[in-house]
# Entry
Amino acid sequence: MLEAFNFRVILEYMPLYGKCFLATLWLSALSLFGAILVGIIACAMRLSQSRFLSRAAGVYIESIRSTPLLAQLYFFYFGLPTLGIMLPEWVTGVLALTLNSGAYYAEIIRSGIQAIHFGQIEAGIASGLSYFQRMRHIILPQALGMTIRPMLGQAIVLVKDSSLLSLISIMELTRAGQLLTSERFMPTEGFLTTAAFYLIIYYMLKAFSNWSEKRLIFQEAY
Amino acid sequence: MWGFYFDELMHSLPFFLKGVWMTVAVSGLSLIAGTIVGFICGILRAGRNKILRAVIGAWVDVIRGTPFLVQVFIIFFILPSAGIELEAFPAAVIALSNLTASFICEIVAGGILAVPKGQREAATASGLSQYQQLRFIVLPQAMRTIMPPLVGQYVLLIKDSSVVSAIGVVDITRVGWLTVQRIPEGLMVFGLVGILYFAICYPLINLSAYMERRMTVVSTRL
# Structure
């Protein structure tokens, strides 16, 4: 298998891989940004006093967590056009990734917030801080610090999940491997190169995760 | 129109149930194989042999760092070029078992390392052999830490099994994909797909949460 490994073909396809690598980064970054936003909102709803908002967020989070991303992706891909909503594939893909990871981020942030001692929130109320001030100055800074590691873990999952977008024919890393397979019939070269590019992202995020944990412990010592 | 398609969808319910059976079969086989391999690797990873530890660690990193879809393609397309012909079903089971094993390996190793060192020392002092220590002292205590994330991992396994539909295994997701070509109501078809996954995963998620609560109660009582 390996003696027949054709580096020339990989070199020939390098520009394509470069483009697809950037596409994966870009799609993931966009979804990550959206997912954290959705996560914060869903979490605020889940923890709110209003029973309706809390229930609605609960239904959203539970139904996302109990179904596979691929089924959600197809749900939007095949479902939105029947409602008359025509979106480009990449928008559908980013939408599905955002809503999927958003539910997980909501849970991660919730665990961070609930780890904060309730006395701090009471102290905030007693000092006359508004809801948003308490969120901004007391709860979120601590919750984000405590949850940075699981959040980066979910970011890694998100990058990997973005490979499913190739199944609705969006050009990204996995799609490049599929192209190399179908055009040259070289699955070994195609998919191993794809895997190598994903590993680069993985190791970078992992290193960042380890680094940030050390930083946080460092800060806590003060 | 909606009603007509709904009747049509109800007629293809047996097809969906076949998909459920396939999902359960793929997940069930991978669950058994993945758990066995995962436990063995986890025990070795927490053991004394440095080389084995490093090798298993590298394997876990590679599996964690690449998307499952890419792993499925590598096993399905590349093993045949190495002379191992595989049908879609065994390829799916191998890929899924491999993925599950790598995650369970980390869970088990973490659980074993969380057992206080004194327990092992006391066991050595009592004259228990390596195997007896593991069987009677370390594993029973480690199981407490292992069980909740293990059940959570099984939920991920069932959800990840949807990805093998990409190589033509006719599981729930693939049935949905085939049905939507015939019944162009994406929301309805993949709504049903989602409900079927939900019915399998939701009880397991609650079981995991319940175990986590019970374990923490036990540990605070001690």
Remarks:
- Residues 7-46 of chain A form the longest helix (40 residues).
